Amino acid sequence: MAEQAACSGQVLAAQNAGATPRRGLFIVLEGGEGAGKSTQLQTVKSCMQELGFTVECTREPGGTKLAEQIRSILLTKDPDEALCSTSELLLMYAARAQLVRSKIRPLMEQGVVVISDRFDLSTIAYQGYGRGFDLQEIKALRELAIGDFKPDLTLLFDVDVDTGMQRVLQRSSKDRIEEESRQFFTRVRQGYLDYAQQHPDEVCMLDGSGSVEQVAEKVRQVLQEHFGHLQVQA
Ligand code: T5A
């Protein structure tokens, strides 16, 4: 029920906007650790291809040569020097500014559908709610880094913190941020839930606790509802 309500505004907006997109689309997958978004990236990609779109996938932080170097600083724990939270926040936006300008926007101008594993909502959830940065300060940095650029649709995969952490624990190694506490990830999840509730026209929340195939089926339904009516330009 909440899922349908969260999605309906975006469907109407797309229909009212006319049948033929003049540019590509930008679709983002979001969620806390182990929510299953990277697993569903392939579902989103193949579904949009089946609808006739040319698709490119990327990720945050990263996605370009320079932004991947920033990712490495962000996610690799340095035994000699801790990365401070302010540097972490600024590096997230440095990577994002680079990715939007050198990859996402140019691809969209060619009519490509760009799908990203994480984007700006991650910063609100992790650095805002998780680390405690003021959301207005984050907003000011966002405007500097990417202006008013935002996704056409964000799919938010939601699982409870324990389920997500259990899934991640099964992996052999954790990155620097994955080593944070359960309380940190509880705040991150709250950040996602608050944003989704406040922006139902931007975010479509999906229950990520079912099997991979059950979640994939919901993803296909949502994409069909949002983009199935669009005509792909030759
Ligand atoms: N970050 C990022 C910030 O702090 N601020 C920012 O602004 C940005 C952009 C990125 C890190 O950077 C932080 C957030 C992150 O900590 P990452 O390597 O990209 O790091 O890692 P994550 O995005 O967190 O990826 P995860 O792999 O942890 O989470 P996913 O992508 O949600 O989960 P996924 O799909 O890899 O699945 C995890 C495990 O669960 C299984 C999978 O097989 C896998 O083993 N799984 C399921 N199991 C059962 N049922 C399902 N439905 C399942 N779906 C997946």
Automatic annotation (TrEMBL):
Classification via Pfam families: Thymidylate_kin (PF02223)
Any one GO CC term of the record: cytosol
Protein keywords: ATP-binding, Kinase, Nucleotide biosynthesis, Nucleotide-binding, Transferase
All copies of domain Thymidylate kinase-like, residue ranges: 29-218
Keyword Nucleotide-binding: yes
E.C. number(s) listed in UniProt: 2.7.4.9
Protein name: Thymidylate kinase
InterPro entries tied to this protein: P-loop_NTPase, Thymidylate_kin-like_dom, Thymidylate_kin_CS, Thymidylate_kinase
Family from the record: Belongs to the thymidylate kinase family.
Binding positions (ATP): G31, G32, E33, G34, A35, G36, K37, S38
Function: Phosphorylation of dTMP to form dTDP in both de novo and salvage pathways of dTTP synthesis.
GO MF annotation, one: ATP binding
Catalysed reactions listed for this entry: dTMP + ATP = dTDP + ADP
